[in-house]
Amino acid sequence: MNRLVVVSNRVPAPSAGTQAGGLAVALDGLMEKRGGLWFGWSGVIAAGAAGRPAMIERSGSVEYATIDLTQDEHDRYYNAFSNSVLWPLLHTMPELMQYDRRDARVYREVNARMAAALQPLLRPTDLIWVHDYHLMPMAAALRARGVRNPIGFFLHIPFCSPDVLAAAPEMTELVREMLSADLIGFQTDNDVTNFAAAAQVLAGAMRGPGNSLFFGGRRIRLGVFPVEIEARSFAARAAEMAESPAVRRLRRDLEGQRLILGVERLDPTKGLLQRLVGLRRLLEKRQDWRGHLTMLQIAAMSRKDVESYRALRTALDREAGALNADLGEPDWQPLRLVARGVERSTVAGYMRLARVGLVTPLRDGMNLVAKEFVAAQDPADPGVLVLSRFAGSARQLEAALLVNPHDPDAMADALDSALRMGLEERQARWRALWAAIEHRSPLVWGRSFVAALLRASTLTVAKTPVPL
Ligand code: F6P
């Protein structure tokens, strides 16, 4: 079996503490089972990091190789270009971009430096799998160093349409660089369509047979690989946690009020302010809910060095305060806002307690919280998922109440229906949702990408382009 080399910005190396997010959770199982090399940033910012080789650690069958970043690299590659340009742009929120071409230069330099540190660790039969928007030039940087191994790239976040994409001057070049991979994977077919269009319109690629493109005399496969959760184990955890002290305390505290739950990182893409407007509209339109529901919004502060995240925190604090002040009573508040992270197991228990899971991003690659909410429910008395139609997971979770998060009345109506929904309909919807996630897992997801990469790498050799 070929060794798998995963390349990602965050790496769950033993020395990296708890810094890894959703991407690492998705890949952990595969790496544990298959073994291999995991390469990326150590999570450490260190002066003089630039010249040093990768630090190697081992845990079980996985070897971790990481490099530190300098403060300037971290500011420009991670905070600025990755999170203040690529993140908003690819989520179709170009108005939030903070573009500076010097950041783009450092982003490229960090990718080149990572490729240089990775190259000596590679073996000729390795399969290389690069992840996410931090590393869009990585395949090209490795090819420039003579690496001939199969390379796959997976984007965990959405890919916007070509006209939006053009707002950042680097995008044509970055799309070309992505095309150095043999297989490029996305969360949804919409992302594939957008990327294929950008590759043709901006980079001059030509459409090939099936889901493929021709570029530079090579054939590149595109594919849809929706990220999944370990549904059964999450369900078991939620059932167990339903009787934990933290969940009991919350249940007691709610005194029979219906719980609406939102859980995410505090991020401009998540539609947090729109959600509060929707709640306000519900309580204005249907006054009988006053005193009978509580919304708990967990919005863990993240990327606090990025201005738009800090601004969102301020706006959210203001709106939450205004909502409670305008609509609350001496003995009741509609909203509880927590801007700290809450332990995943406890969240699983809260999800089981909730009557409504409110997952309404303005745009989201997949959104695993929606899948976790489904898995956490008690099949005998399940809660209702209210889900944004702009989340990638809406394509699989069609039995949820799908809403447009920009429309406060639609949000209020969906919340009202969810809160009033009878047991039979809740059960029927839940069964359909569960069927969509039950037999899937991150392991199956990872294996299907790796199998597709092996197939794709035999196809990449020069073939005659098919005219459009
Ligand atoms: O794909 C999006 C992602 O990179 C996830 O892996 C992760 O959950 C999240 O964003 C966290 O981002 P950061 O690494 O910036 O904390």
Automatic annotation (TrEMBL):
InterPro entries: Glyco_trans_20. GO terms for biological process: trehalose biosynthetic process. Gene3D superfamilies: Glycogen Phosphorylase B (3.40.50.2000). Pfam families: Glyco_transf_20 (PF00982). GO terms for molecular function: alpha,alpha-trehalose-phosphate synthase (UDP-forming) activity. It comes from the Bacteria. Belongs to the glycosyltransferase 20 family. PANTHER family: BCDNA.GH08860, TREHALOSE-6-PHOSPHATE SYNTHASE. This is Trehalose-6-phosphate synthase. It comes from Rhodovastum atsumiense.
